[in-house]
Amino acid sequence: MKSLSPVDQLFLWLEKRQQPMHVAGLQLFSFPEDAGPKYVSELAQSIRDYCCPEPPFNQRLTRRFGQYFWTEDKQFDIDHHFRHEALPKPGRIRELLSLVSAEHSNLLDRERPLWEAHLIEGIRGRQFALYTKVHHSVVDGISAMRMGMRALSKDPHERDLPPVWAYKPEKKQRSLPSNPVDAMSSLARLTAGVSKQVATVPALARELYKVSQKAKTDPNYVSIFQAPDTMLNQCITGSRRFAAQSFALPRLRKLAGTFNCTINDLVLSMCGHALREYLIGQNALPDQPLIAMVPLSLRKDDSAGGNQIALILANLGTHVCDPANRLRIVQASVKDAKRRFAQMSPEEILNFTALSMTPTGLNLLTGLAPKWRAFNVIISNVPGPREPLYWNGARLRGMYPVSVVLDRIALNITLTSYQDQLEFGLIACRRTLPSMQRLLDYLENSVRELEIAAGFK
After folding, report:
1. Of all helices (H) and strands (E), which one includes residue 219?
2. Where does the record place the O-acyltransferase WSD1-like N-terminal domain (predicted)?
3. Per-residue DSSP letters for 109-149?
């Protein structure tokens, strides 16, 4: 039996019917050249044979004294977790995204290990897809990416590759203390950790004072309570809509070089433009700029489990029309946040992040302070592989992240890189944000406007 970290337990406490807390990935493959008409069916049967999963995929939840623990599922049923499905005709990407939208709306069964994998055939152009979802208490975005990549190969001729749940974990997970000596050692480590946290209080107080003072003089500077009230920040339902699109990385790198910014700065500016246009179309654009919460990985090893992230708040510049000016506002906002973290210890970063997110956490847990808002939207970038990958001879053509929507944060934009592509995955409450898929067109328009501003067209 293994205990969950406080962060991982939080993802369980936050879950409710209208707020599923799983993350997912959609991988799109093309058939091998020598594949026959029964290729996917045969692949499905070979996958189903892996019916004895490795940790964490064989772990189910148990609860004692109000705390959650992982314990091995002794009655694991592969047919519950792995499903072979086919799209209805005509098998367009539209039908694929509709299926993912429906599946992502469903809660995972807490009586079983918290994951599912859907092998989907019937896609036009000799393609098939794999949609895999895992509870956020099991993995974060970085570790989910690493797990997914382990199941793929750089060799197009390699066959008999096991699915992701059949791989042994790369690093041994620490278990609960099994004797008094181990328990005392764990208590000593905990006490030392608390001491480190307490020592961060003076530095945090100084930093919060600086933030509050600068926010008074600079309207583009991001403070904790700056995010405006928008239609993105209403109560949500359990129904989801998923949209996805790829952008050529060389195209974006050329723009980033011209404007002397990072790809992340450019992406945030693109999202700012798309949200501005969407809200204008809904007659709902606020005068104040929207604020994005951007996860920043603190992971310094190759571990795959748990969550190790900090969060920054970025000004999306939705209050300005000029695309180049918006990009400058975004870039300055991100630089301020990174400069602040560069002066902090890991403990100070985590505590500053926790303090910054307190208003949002309070709302998610209680709903008592809806006007205390730190951010309007979540935008996350997870690095992906640079070389072409294959799964049992099938080439990976695209990989799209499918993340979490939270109450009063009705949109999540997550992206990852693959080869020379940047893959956007947008997930939203379909009732709160009608016609959300229009954001894809607005993202493309934002790139075109920046290209015009750079003199490319």
Report:
1. none
2. 4-267
3. PTTS-SEEEEEEEEETTTEEEEEEEEETTTB-HHHHHHHHH
